[in-house]
Amino acid sequence: MVGNHEGVYVLRFEGDVRLTVSGTFDRYLDAMFADPRFVSVLVDLSAAVAIDSTSLGVLAKLSIAVQKKYQQLPLLVCNAQDILRILQSMGFEDVFVIVSDAQELRQQLAELPLANDLDEEEMRLRVIEAHETLMGLNEQNAVTFRSLVEALQAESSATVSRRNVS
Q: 3-state class of 42 per DSSP?
């Protein structure tokens, strides 16, 4: 779910947040940052029951972009202890202001339509990028995700090689 009121964007994730939303989310972020009225962003995970590492990487990418462009940390709402532990272990307290409760949002949120036009290679590249972002947050993440990223990069290279031979 997404909303925007005078340049303040709200991104609310509900249920099981998985890789399938990363392409849609990346495109929405591009539009958000292109908005000349952009002021800040709030990420609300209070209705999320789980979140995968690719989605976490995309959120880290969001925060890094906000910091570079606007010199501020975005706000992240999370009240689920298991997700909060994951955020803390990934170093998210360095890239977000994390709170456990937010006052009722007064704006209307609309569901962001899913984009299903990413092919397998584009999806793989988004997963690599998201995990490389996580790896850049701290050394533990670098160790945790290094083999995954290397495997995906090798798979991507093999796919490109097969396409060039065809």
A: strand
Per-residue pLDDT reduced to its tens digit, 44-56: 999 999 999 888 9
DSSP 156: H
- The residues, any chain, with a CB within 8 Å of residue 110's CB and separated by 6 or more, are 1, 2, 3
What does the block give as tokens for 97? 């202001």
Reported pTM: 0.70
| Residue located via tokens 């959120």 | 59
Supply 66's token pair.
Answer: 């906000």
Sequential DSSP letters for 10-37: EEEEEEEE-GGGHHHHHHHHHHHHH-TT
Under DSSP, the state recorded for 71 is S
Cβ proximity of 48 and 15 under 8 Å = yes
What is the rounded CA–CA span in Å between residue 90 and residue 109? 28
Please give the structure tokens belonging to residue 11. 């991104």
Report which residue type is found at 61.
K
Q: Which residues contact 131 (CB under 8 A, 6 or more apart)?
A: 53, 54, 57, 145, 148, 149, 152
